[in-house]
Amino acid sequence: MAPREAGGTGAVAGTADTACTADAADTPDKGLRETLQQAHTLLQGGFLTVRRDTVGLPDGTSATREFVVHPGAVAVVPVLDDGRVVMVRQFRYPLGQVLLEFPAGKIDPGEPVWHCARRELREETGYTAREWARACRIHNAAAYSTEGIEIWMARGLEPGPQALDAGEFLEVVAMTEDELDRLAQAGELTDVKTLVGLQWLRQWRRGEWSLSWQPSPES
Asked: Which conformational region is residue 107 in: left (phi greater than 0), alpha (psi within -120 to 50 degrees), or beta?
């Protein structure tokens, strides 16, 4: 049986901006909810859409909301047999700097989340994993993006060749939990999905948070 995915249905995460279209008439939190009055697309990019919607507020007035529609993504916490984790260093153009991150990537249209996790781990690092477990889903920029990132854990790693996309340049490194903790404390580990993945790794190893491990279909 495949590990549980968001919503328990295996649906692709992060593809629908349902919060913008929900009918607030008879729903919980109706004193907080905003309802779509008019949708307006500002830009349709290669995989991102920028919108400026007019919404109805709980007090009966209207406002505009500018946000990015994102297809969703998956991040993987790959645990080596010696306890270290596999990381990637990648230049992030919007920030103008190299970030240390867990392997991650966007979900392709119609792609199951677990498949995306296995694909991104293999493409970015060359590793495959014998076992997988879903940790959580995060919203890393809820004020201006629909993006949801699924965080998965992987263990029983086997090395192999990378299969990077055209124009993708990564450096693969292995680090200990203590090394990552020191970077986080120093403010040098700033990627949100990586900080949350590190928290899951720490809490799982301490027995505070549980994971349901399943064998990879490729095993």
From this structure: beta
Rounded to whole angstroms, how far apart are CA atoms 34 and 59?
10
Which residue's structure tokens are 């505070």?
Answer: 208
The answer to whether 110 and 85 have CB atoms below 8 angstroms apart is no
The two structure tokens encoding residue 137: 């889903």
The Cα 85–Cα 204 span in angstroms is: 14
Q: Is 173 among the domain residues?
A: yes
Chain-centre distance of CA 13, in angstroms?
Answer: 9
The angle subtended at Cα 157 by Cα 98 and Cα 93, nearest 5°, is: 15
Per DSSP bridges, beta strands 85-92 and 97-101 are: antiparallel
| Strand, helix or coil for residue 189 | coil
| CA separation for the pair 42, 39 (Å, rounded) | 10
| Residues ≥6 apart with Cβ < 8 Å to 218 | 118, 128
* Per-residue pLDDT tens over the stretch 61-117: 999 999 999 999 999 999 999 999 999 999 999 999 999 999 999 999 999 999 999
Look up the domain containing 86 and give its range.
71-206
Residues 140 and 62 in one domain: no
- Are 63 and 76 members of one domain? no
In angstroms, the CA 166 to CA 16 distance is 28
Reduced 3-state DSSP string for 59-70: CCCEEEEEEEEC
The pTM (predicted TM-score) of the whole model is 0.87
